[in-house]
Structure formats: structure tokens, C-alpha cells
From TrEMBL:
The keyword Transmembrane helix does not apply. Residues 343-354 have a biased composition (Low complexity). Residues 267-330 form the CAF17 C-terminal domain. This is Aminomethyltransferase. Pfam families: Beta-barrel_CAF17_C. InterPro entries: CAF17_C (IPR057460), TrmE/GcvT-like (IPR027266), YgfZ/GCV_T_CS (IPR017703), YgfZ/GcvT (IPR045179). Keywords: Methyltransferase, Transferase, Transit peptide. The keyword Methyltransferase applies.
Length: 354
């Protein structure tokens, strides 16, 4: 069945009209004033309906070790209230699933993921149970995100707060609420001064935060290090813990972390707003006539005009970029200056020096 949020009955609610790989089906893209709604983030707090995401619950005495063995995040010693992100990768370290992770007061793990990723992730987790004492099932929970202001939600089954990944991004708290209480939860947040904004406002912040969606921003070859903030470094837990036991894809993570660098990076780019039409996700990015990357999410930002996420070769990050007839420039602040010491590389150099 096609999902439609009850908040689509609000005045001015409009869904995303064009075909897009962005996970947006079933919720409002805006409520009539898309750029004004982005201002709610800094004014009073923007309430974003993300109830189109789907949620998996993992419960039982073996839940922490079960998930710890499968996912990229360290989850075997978590406590109620724990929040993070996690990835599921293949044996070569290529990303298969992305998810938010939250642990409720009763110790249940909740994994929320884009609707398109949900069936295969649920199937994978279910098949991996074997003798583990866990239950894996879909949870009838809707996700609400609050950007900017620190609001509270009494109906929340879980709350997840993560620090902003970049200086351009706003603080974000995600609440998981029973679907039947979605409208009541929004009313409570509005009572604290928050204002309902469409998914376009969230998407603009997501681009600022350099936070990709798998279908829109990455490809079948993408690895974790291509999204710098996914690698857990204090104070941000990221989605990949660098000091934990085995999980599928760990070899690639360890090799890149200790010896090399990812061949590409996900960055924010500014697009020439004078172009008659904007390029679409998946378009080729070129430099000097040579293909150097692919374009991801494109959105109009209330401060910066048209911006996008782009997966670009490192060698091309310093020069001018072109997407068809549209010029683009990399936001240099989204290029990481320190990706951690390369212990393996240092060891190689010491051996060669002997």
C-alpha cells in the first residue's frame, strides 16, 4: 500500500512532484512556503514529518551482541538512550543499508531506514537470527525530526540526538512515536513553539550536514570512508566504529583507515543559480571534459540558493566543476582536513627505512 501521512491534510501541504530518488513519498515536501519554512530551523525549531521511514525493532537478551556482529557500529555495550547511526556492508565494504539506531528505556533497539531499504534489511536481519535470542519485526512507529530548537516529546518511544556533522548544519533530534499518536506528538511540539516544515527544509539541512541518502547520493561502489562524518571520531559517533570486533566489510574499513584514503569524497557543492534548469541526481560531474563524479541530492537553500551533494574524485576537488550546462563549486569547508593518523602507512614507511 502507498503510504500517506495524516499530516498531508494540513493547509498548504504539497508532496514532491518530480520523479526523484530522494526518499520523500508519502509526506509533505512543503506546506506552501518552502524557503520560509527553512527559517523555522533558526527561529523556533522546525518539526519535520519523516513518518515515511520504516522502523525495525530488535529485542531480546542477545540483541546487543546480535547487532554488534552484523553492523558497523559498536552496540554490544549500549545503554538505554543510546543514539547513533550504523551501516550494513557487503564483504567488499560496499554499502548496502543505512540506518539510525536508538535504544529505548526497555533496551529495545530501533533501526529506522528509508522505505526502499526496509524490506531487504528486515529480510537480512531475520535470516541471521539462527540461535540468537532475539526478535526482529517491523515496529509501528513514525519518525519526527526537530531541527534547531531543543523540544521535548512525551509520546516518544525513543529519542535520538546527534551533534551537527558540519558547521553549516543545525542540531537535530529524532523522535520515534507510535503512528497512531503522530498528530498528537506534532501538536505537543507546536505547543512548545516549534513550527511544522516540509521535507524540503530537512533536505536542505541534510545537504548542509553532508548526510547522504543511499539511493540519491551514493552508488553501488560507495564505501564508508567516502562519507567522512560516517567514520566515528570524537565528538561525533558516526556510523562506523573503528575499535570493535568483526563485521562484514570491516577489512575494507580497516585498510582505508590504516593505509590509504578513499578515492572519492562526498561534498556539498554550490550550483550556478542563473542556469535555466537544475541538473538531476545521478548526473555526471566533469572537470576539463573528464568525468570526475556524480551528482546527488539537489535542493534550493534559503541562504545559499541551489546546493547539492556530490560524490567527487579527490583529485578534482580543488578545480571548477561542471554538470551539463551548470557550473558548480565545492564548499571547501566540507572537505575534511584531518582524517586521522594512518598507522599502517607509518609502519610501512618504517619498514622501508630499515
Amino acid at each position: 500500500m502507498t503510504y500517506a501521512s495524516p499530516l498531508l491534510t494540513r493547509a498548504g501541504a504539497a508532496t514532491l512532484q518530480e520523479d526523484s530518488p530522494i526518499d520523500a513519498a508519502g509526506v509533505a515536501w512543503h506546506y506552501g512556503n518552502p524557503l520560509v519554512e527553512q527559517r523555522f530551523v533558526e527561529d523556533s525549531g522546525a518539526i519535520i514529518d519523516r513518518s515515511h521511514r520504516r522502523v525495525i525493532s530488535v529485542a531480546g537478551p542477545d540483541a546487543p551482541s546480535f547487532l554488534n556482529n552484523l553492523l558497523s557500529q559498536k552496540l554490544d555495550d549500549t545503554a538505554p538512550g543510546y543514539s547513533a547511526q550504523a551501516l550494513d556492508m557487503d564483504i567488499q565494504g560496499r554499502i548496502l543499508h543505512t540506518m539510525g539506531v536508538a535504544v529505548s528505556k526497555d533496551g529495545t533497539f530501533y533501526l529506522d531506514t528509508p522505505a526502499a531499504e526496509f524490506p531487504s534489511l528486515l529480510d537480512y536481519l531475520t535470516k541471521m537470527i539462527f540461535w540468537s535470542q532475539v526478535t526482529v519485526a517491523e515496529a509501528d512507529i513514525a519518525v519526527l525530526s526537530v531541527l534547531g530548537a531543543p523540544l521535548e516529546c512525551s509520546a516518544a518511544v525513543f529519542a535520538r540526538t546527534l551533534p551537527p556533522a558540519t558547521e553549516l548544519a543545525a542540531p537535530q533530534t529524532d523522535f520515534g512515536v507510535p503512528r497512531g499518536e503522530l498528530e498528537t506528538a506534532v501538536a505537543e511540539l507546536e505547543g512548545q513553539g516549534g513550527k511544522l516544515a516540509g521535507l524540503m527544509a530537512y533536505t536542505a539541512q541534510r545537504v548542509r550536514a553532508r548526510e547522504p541518502e543511499l539511493a540519491a547520493d551514493l552508488d553501488s561502489k560507495a564505501i564508508a570512508h567516502e562519507v567522512p562524518q560516517w567514520i566515528g571520531r570524537a565528538p561525533h559517533p558516526g556510523a562506523v566504529h573503528l575499535n570493535k570486533g568483526c563485521y562484514r566489510g570491516q577489512e575494507t574499513v580497516a585498510r582505508v583507515e590504516n593505509i590509504g584514503r578513499s578515492p572519492r569524497l562526498l561534498v556539498m557543492v554550490y550550483l550556478d543559480g542563473s542556469a535555466p534548469t537544475m541538473p538531476i541526481p545521478g548526473a555526471d560531474i566533469t572537470s576539463g571534459g573528464r568525468r570526475v563524479g556524480r551528482l546527488g541530492t539537489v535542493v534550493d537553500d534559503c541562504d545559499f540558493g541551489p546546493v547539492a551533494l556530490a560524490l567527487v574524485k579527490r583529485s578534482a576537488l580543488g578545480g571548477p566543476l561542471q554538470i551539463g550546462d551548470v557550473a558548480a563549486a565545492v564548499e571547501q569547508g566540507t572537505i575534511p582536513q584531518d582524517e586521522g593518523p594512518k598507522a599502517g602507512r607509518a609502519a610501512q614507511q618504517r619498514l622501508r627505512g630499515r
